[in-house]
Amino acid sequence: MAIDKRVASAAAALADVKDGSTVLISGFGGAGFPNTLIRALREQGAKQLTLVVNSATHRYSLTHLLIESGQVAKVVCSAARGAGKDLSPFEQLWKAGKIELVCLPQGTFSEAIRAGGAGIPAFYTPVGVGTDLASGKEVREFDGREFVLERAIKGDLTLMRADTSDVYGNLTFRYSQANFGPAMATASRCTIAEVRAVESEPIPHTRAQLPGVYVNRVVVEEKPA
Amino acid sequence: MSAKPLNRSQMAWRAAQDITEGQIVNLGLGMPVAVADYLKPGLDVFFQSENGVVGVGPLAAEGQIDTDLVDAGSRRITLRRGATIVDSASSFAMIRGGHIDVTVLGAFEVAANGDLANWDMRVPNKGPLVGGAMDLAACAQAVWVIMEHNTRKGGARLIEACTLPLTAKRCVKRIFTDIAVVDVTPSGFVAREMVEGLSPDELRARTGAAIAIAADCGTIKAPPLADGA
Question: At the top level of CATH, which class does the domain B8-219 belong to?
Fold first, then answer.
């Protein structure tokens, strides 16, 4: 049977998500948020999730829907501060002790995900040495410089956004839409890509930016009702 | 005091004067991004942004906006000639690998040994926000800071040892304040330039650690600019 990774709806693509899953979600600065898939995960209702997402409080992402609905037990991110003086939904739950937080430097966050998808269990980085974010972590000297040992991140599920796909799951991105998506696609057992459109012909290798080998399911964006 | 401090646009202007031809530069959020507006005419420089844009151009005008094209501050931007875009993991590999010539960052405190505190004010009840600050501070070839010389209450920001959480150790090379350009050297702070009318004694009084005055210490000659703060 010919490969065809298209799934009819976001709801169908997310039907098998289990409680306690670790979910990686792409997006940065308003670009590359898989908001159709996030809405569908809200509807699907899986609980006790660990979210691996760059920002726990970004105003353009719908991540807050999952946080407000009480589906999230833990967030791994590089930014957890809401804009303005009022506490964001994440900050309220975090202060109340209802959500666990792991804050990482953004490059450590992205490299941990890349390593997770590349078969590397841990890596040494010069970033964070001597800071609060490295406390309790192993520090080792190489060539006269100190490095901190960071563990890789792997997920059960990645929700990512791309511009187009073909039936093989090969993806293209617009401008800075890619951000964390390509690394996240490699790091989970199941990756679902939300796209603007699925092209009828295979995407030429010169244009494909992420091989479909990392993409399990493709969903076309759905406008909210 | 007779000395007139630089406004925020003039501080950005002064930092921009030290950027040289062909450099790859990353500008932090806030005052540092204004550095791009004041480069010397004709200079060919690539601005890198942590979200993967290599070659950030001017902000997008109304009608030019594309919500998929943003910089690390979520600002809608354009691309310059020759720009490329990579994913976040590749962008931070570029940063960590030492491929950024200069990063210009805001800061709360800089210590005399170059320690930088710029990521967490320990705001009560607010969550942490580190973003790419530690990566840039630890790994750029040169780390420059733009910040006011003193806090609003008059406290020193150039100090013996940081009191706020560190971003990176021994990383800052140069500080552009509203009253001076200060290098961080193996022997501590050295003032390279001061605003007109500022005396060495006044500079020392407003600095929280020993500060030497360079033998050839000059005067900052900033053009009049509207305060961009």
Answer: alpha beta
